[in-house]
Amino acid sequence: MALKKNDEFVIDIEDMSVDGEGIGKYEGMTFFVKDALIGDTVRAKVMKLKKTYGYARLMEILKPSADRVDPVCRFHRQCGGCQIQALSYEKQLEFKQEKVENNLRRIGGFRNIPMEPIIGMEEPFHYRNKAQFPVGKDKEGHIITGFYAGRTHQIIPNRDCALGIPANKEILDIVIDFMETYQIEPYDEMSGTGLVRHILIRAGFQTGELMVCLIINGDELPHQEALIEKLTKIKGMTSISVNRNTKKSNVILGDRTKTIWGQPYITDYIGDVKYQISPVSFFQVNPVQTKAMYDLALEYADLSGGEVLWDLYCGIGTISLFLAQKAEKVYGVEIIPQAIEDARKNAAVNEIQNAEFFVGKAEEILPEFYEKEKAAGKKAYADVIVVDPPRKGCDTKLLETILKMAPSKVVYVSCDSATLARDLKILCGGGYQLKRVRPIDNFCQSTHVEVVTLLQRMSHIREKTNAHSCIRCAPIV
Ligand code: SAH
């Protein structure tokens, strides 16, 4: 008899989706079971049925997979953050390595992929230097803070996330205690009333500096002195601020930040480069793995000191400044003006003079630069182009310009191996060869993975349209 919604059934899990759900077959139907692992036999309940597949909820593990471990966090199933915490770390790394390779094969059409082993962490917990905790009330009216349940805005009270730093709990206890003492209301999303929306905490892993920023639905935090007095007793406290966000939207930070104690920023290092980080700055959340990732980008770029580089999607210039130390000149491009302000400031802080930054879309700035040079009778030149786009990958117009500029190397840093595969296919169709691929686990316990790849221009590429000319030797057309 065919299954109906809410029916329970027993299923063996044989595969894992890219989003970490267990996959099994039952009477010819494929089922996706969140939180079930390859090798598990589970009792599951039908949640949604389609023609040939369905989604089911894990009800009971009848026979656990050999790769199952005791999850560190008891909220791991509810919270949206750690999709695969119950999988042994070794298997998590294997899963990510295969995910990248499969995408390159399936979407990119690559064969004999030069995969290098994923760089994992020695301690895959407590790696995040930033957390934003929503504040609300439970059914009994107690003030709570923690994390949103997956795909909802229901707060799961948890002040001690296993991915965060131990100081998070200390800080959250103080803030919630302060709110209770002075009857400061948390923000209510439905009515738009109440004051405290989020508590943002950042830490400098090298410096030990701490930042606390309260995002509030108003201008002033009443009795702030009492909060400051408590928070400043915590070792490393460097910056306390309030950020005003009175908009009814999901965007966490508003556009005005007021420092109420200490400095407006904290400082941290990646390698030898120093970064000043404000509450609104973008900064990679896993500094240990970021260092490994930038080291790898540097290794792939293989600089000797005289090169001209472009760092597209540069954020606050982290990769640009890292590479500038080993290059003649680095140009960074980023869409967010505030991030470019930070990039310029960080260049100055580090006395780096060979990095120049532009605000705008990479797919507009680079083509415009190319056309301008061409109009002046020159060929826009780059030895290496580094791209580190958001999940949606690079715009085709940008990829076309990269092909026209024909740098000898492209280093593509990606947080989504599906769009990476799509873009690499275009670049390799235009004369590049995929030389090196290495995943990096920046987001342990989740299904996300970063990848650094190296593309090298083949020396003599015959253009499809003209069998007698090669891209390098051809005049600019
Ligand atoms: N390389 C940086 C940031 C990478 S995140 C680092 O390692 O820290 C991707 C960045 O691309 C974000 O800062 C985002 O604001 C920026 N971005 C998104 N779309 C863009 C576009 N079309 N052109 C330029 N930058 C863009």
Topology:
Blueprint: E1 8-12, E2 15-16, E3 22-26, E4 29-34, E5 41-49, E6 53-63, H1 89-106, E7 130-137, E8 143-148, E9 155-157, H2 167-181, E10 196-203, E11 210-216, H3 224-231, E12 237-244, E13 256-262, E14 266-270, E15 273-277, H4 287-301, E16 308-312, H5 318-324, E17 329-334, H6 337-349, E18 355-359, H7 362-375, E19 384-387, H8 396-405, E20 409-414, H9 417-429, E21 432-440, E22 450-457
Parallel strand pairs: 4-6, 11-12, 16-17, 16-19, 17-18, 19-20
Antiparallel strand pairs: 1-5, 2-3, 3-4, 5-6, 7-8, 7-10, 8-9, 10-11, 12-13, 14-15, 20-22, 21-22
This protein binds S-adenosyl-L-homocysteine.
How would you characterize this protein structure?
The protein has 477 residues and is an alpha/beta fold. Helices cover 24% and strands 29% of the residues. The protein is built from nine helices and 22 strands. The protein has helices at 89-106, 167-181, 224-231, 287-301, 318-324, 337-349, 362-375, 396-405, 417-429; strands at 8-12, 15-16, 22-26, 29-34, 41-49, 53-63, 130-137, 143-148, 155-157, 196-203, 210-216, 237-244, 256-262, 266-270, 273-277, 308-312, 329-334, 355-359, 384-387, 409-414, 432-440, 450-457. Strand 17, helix 6 (337-349) and strand 18 (355-359) form a beta-alpha-beta unit. Helix 1 runs parallel beside helix 9 (417-429) and helix 7 (362-375) packs parallel to helix 8 (396-405). The protein is globular. S-adenosyl-L-homocysteine (SAH) binds next to helix 5, strand 17 and helix 7.
